[in-house]
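Predict structure. Chain length: 254.
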Amino acid sequence: MAAAEPSIDALGQFKLDTALGALGASVNFTNSNFMMLVAGGLILALLYFGMRPKAIIPGRLQALAEIAYDGIYSMCHEQIGHEGRAYFPFIFTLFFFVMFGNLLGLLPFTFTYTSHIAVTFGLALIVIVVATVVALRIHGWKFFTYFFPEGAPKALAPIIIPVEVISYLSRPISLSIRLCANMVAGHVMFEVFASFIVMMAASSMLGHFGIVAAIGPMALNVILMGFELLVAFLQAYVFAILTCIYLHDAVHLH
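Prediction complete.
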């Protein structure tokens, strides 16, 4: 009797499970929560051990930490202005939390917490709330002029204001869906092509040809891994730079 071919459950990898056994079950501690703690620990370790030597000629880890610091700081200054220094810790934390979530999810037996809309929407909501609070603190009631551009005909106010308000409120939706969709799509493609490798290599009908035929999907998976590494960084960068743009609008009202 021929062995049953493995089925493809591409979305099973996004299922939330309890972590830490009975302790995790008692407090509803999931694998997503666990990976967030791991990401936070790795970020702190990178900064601590990277900057601890304080060498004039930095080693690799110190160079990585310094490049990360300077890169995010420059982004804040260029996108927001000199006021961006005040928001640098917030942007820095967001960038690394998203990037480590993306990267850790590429390792075997891990979980990509940025693939869940609840996580990405929560992060995006924090961004919009912070930007709104900043705008109200700096400009007060003048902030609401943001929804009606200066010089626009007053007769168009009933049209322009609702459009601007809807556009502003849609920011957390677009910000969260962009990150979540990219992570889900990439991991689903990994799962599908990995399943093709197993199915072809184990096929009794193809025999030895099945092993040869599996090389194609395996090579494609290697290419996808490189692409996903790029996407992991790129999506964190996009999330951070859009946050800078939203804070720029909050600070300068344009």
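Summary: DSSP finds nine helices and no strands in the chain.
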